[in-house]
User: Fold this.
Amino acid sequence: MRALSAAGHRVLGFDADPETRATARSAAARVPAAQRWQITATIRDAAADAELVVLAVPLPALDDVLDALTACGYHGLITDVTSVKGPVREAVAARLRRAANPLAGFVGGHPMTGKSVSGFASGDPALFTGCAWVLCLDEATGLDDWLTVAGLITALGARVVPATSAEHDRAVAVISHVPHLLALALAATAASDPLALTLAAGSFRDGTRVAGSRPELVAAMCGGNAAAVLTALGDVQERLDEAAKALEGRDPLRAIRDWAKDGHAARQAWPPAPGRPEQVPVRVETLLRLGRAGGWITEVAADRRTVTAFLPVEGE
Amino acid sequence: MRALSAAGHRVLGFDADPETRATARSAAARVPAAQRWQITATIRDAAADAELVVLAVPLPALDDVLDALTACGYHGLITDVTSVKGPVREAVAARLRRAANPLAGFVGGHPMTGKSVSGFASGDPALFTGCAWVLCLDEATGLDDWLTVAGLITALGARVVPATSAEHDRAVAVISHVPHLLALALAATAASDPLALTLAAGSFRDGTRVAGSRPELVAAMCGGNAAAVLTALGDVQERLDEAAKALEGRDPLRAIRDWAKDGHAARQAWPPAPGRPEQVPVRVETLLRLGRAGGWITEVAADRRTVTAFLPVEGE
Assistant:
């Protein structure tokens, strides 16, 4: 809401919690009048004249909110910012099949940014500047709807990454969900040794930081993406098995040094730097290939026939 | 050198690299005259009148330096700051048996602090303030030698943690060596998916930070501590197997939430806060019990009969 309002859009918002609505109303009073969002008393009031509805609710609340939207006859475009995309796509598809007034269009989204603090008061209109924002291009996604949302989001300064829901869920399993499991396993292992906890410094602090996330949140992320998390966890465990073999061998120093090279090179090359901007034709396969190669788009052309795209270049 | 000089000790230093010696000499010229260290041209010159020699060399260089020290007839106390203590203890013991002039005393040490940048120019006299500094109390360690080094180091503002070499090596396997292996395995797994690398944000950044350490350093740490690292890695892998089972089960959300509780609680309670200071009698078993309970000492009494000790108290 803060980012869209600051970008000059007319924004109406609703939250199930009256206290959050009150906080959001007072916060609006503190921004320039032209950038002020409005808080409505019902979902119906918020959606009545909307061209786009952004669902910013956790996965377990999604079904109810989609039902409320169809119940009030909303026919416009919908996007969301939930961290797992397969279950969201399925929830929307189930409603499209069932609803007397099918939703006009749905584009699943996931901005790869956030803060360690929650609540409306922690919002920041600049939160999305430069962040990667996945927009799902699934078989059921209308390319025109996708371009509409992509245009809106690139205009906020985010880098839009095209991917299927399945590709997104596999990628976040590796870079977000499994890291939580590793952090929790490490913290739990250290817990049995008070001496270790007293000696722990930087590598333990960073390696376990996300173990501070609430177990409910970790469960929602990993449990909602179980198949992809299992695959990614299996890959990591395989590499750890190789490390164990290296340590058991006759020359552990040399074996661990060789084993460490891939991971070290990957980390040194991260984050990927952008190559030169390219004008890329708007075709589903071309966009998905761009996303698979680690690319992103920063602009949708006015005629919607091309997008401005970047591919990553090798780091050092 | 910087910390000991700043604390008013007379410090002489030697480094095998002439460039490092030059850097250390010019750096000395920039501190107040009373706090100036001297750089010598040989190990012999540095050790000639020393009461204590601090070995700050990597494990592979240790044998040569110990040989040079015995060759020049050094009879004083020695301590070191190497990150694995078992192999250091064995190297010293081998020389004690062999040398015509046995070393008077050895106390293995490991300050749990550091910087991501190396070299004399990166030194900081305040680096040890508040850090945990393990001093090994093995069977061969003279308690009087241990108290001498402990007194020196607590006066630098560090928290001295008594532990056997084996206890130290087991603890750092969990809190330092295994975190490096987890970070490397995670980074290597993500490397095969450019989409994942583009989406990666905070949890990947922190979870893989130490994968940026040079493979040679990781190999020296893990390879020099292979048995303890294997045990700790096995414990972490067992917990990851449990997470996999939780994900495969009928209710992955509830199972992961329950699985996550131990690690979450451990991370929330870390770092441990100090309890009230206590005067503890100087006895080997008492000191080792203190270390095993996660405690540390901040002062050695002038009569050397007690130390000021702290035990950790439960976090939130």
User: Anything to note?
Assistant: The two ends of chain A are 38 Å apart (CA to CA). DSSP finds 13 helices and 13 strands in chain A.
